[in-house]
Amino acid sequence: xxxTPTSQRITQSEFVALVAVLVAIVAFSIDAMLPxxxxxxxxxxxxxxxxxxxxxxxxxxxLGIGTFFAGPLSDxxxxxxVVIVGSALYVVASALAWMAPNLELLLAARAxxxxxxxxxxxxxxxxxxxxxxxxxxxxxTSFIMMVFTLVPAVAPLIGSGIIALSNWRGIxxxxxxxxxxxxxxxxxxxxxxxxxxxxxxxRMGHVWRAAKTVMSNRTVQLCTAAQALCxxxxxxxxxxxxxxxxxxxxxxxxxxxxxxxxALVAGGFSLLNAMLVIRLGMKRLLIIAMSLMxxxxxxxLFLDQMVYATGLPFIVYLVWQTAVFMHTSMTLGxxxxxxxxxxGAVAGMAxxxxxxxxxxxxxxxxxxxxxxxNDTALPxxxxxxxxxxVALLLARRIEDV
Length: 401
What we know:
15 helices
């Protein structure tokens, strides 16, 4: 770790917690909506229930687009101001979503939410790169991911509670409150980590040159493509998971508790990754996690087609779904750390380009998988198998780290 003004005000433990909370606004914005999707499907697009999945993908699309700008803006204007402005945009979008009279306006508001949330997602990781490097950065990222998983564990429960007390629109009030609290924490506790003498004017020529610097790096190219494919497995699962619990297994009422279980198990694997990454290195962990995910999915598809005539039992499906989130805990943080390692001079731009391309790419792959839902988990499993298999081929070509 390099000594910075930040270390004079905030401890490492609080820093990890704060960054995790900032980044967790994305998970909260997705996972708290999951229990509301059947209600929204009944109220807004009753003739096409699968379209309710776009509530997730529209947010992720806005998130992906926003990441292209969040990092460069933070390189030019500083880390904290960009997070604060993004939080304000997120609050405005939450208000618009709360008032939306139809699905089209709701989806537009969700995309705008994603734009705002992109600042809280990207800029904190640039702050981490300002302070850490190498395997130490990967370890800190894993700790952040571990804390980050607590939000998905409780978000569906919070969403269900809000729906019970009011209706699904009340969730957007909670979103706005979350953004205000996290931004206030940043303002009060963190000293700016990107000093004015390092900032470059925000010019498109400069942005384009920095983007070329980022994407001309072979490691960045491989990690970005692999991230997109690993995110596809995650986003496709998030888009379909409530429908599978509800339609396929009739467990909509207990869904928040099962989701909490899945998220907590995945959080444990983030801690495991943090402990192992220093010893084994990032590439080896990536290959192990992807290989295990591929093997398990092949077994599940075999059981689905050759053993269980009426489809996988719920517990068998639950094992596979938990494995998807465990795989995410063991791959996304490592891929991000590997990609960011050579990008210290343009950390904000690198975080934006890498995450933006990976996210938008994942959305493009996710939408057809989600819309292919046929009352079973089969389309999801096939999509995950293909995406992770290609990601493994790319990960094997990354230099040892």
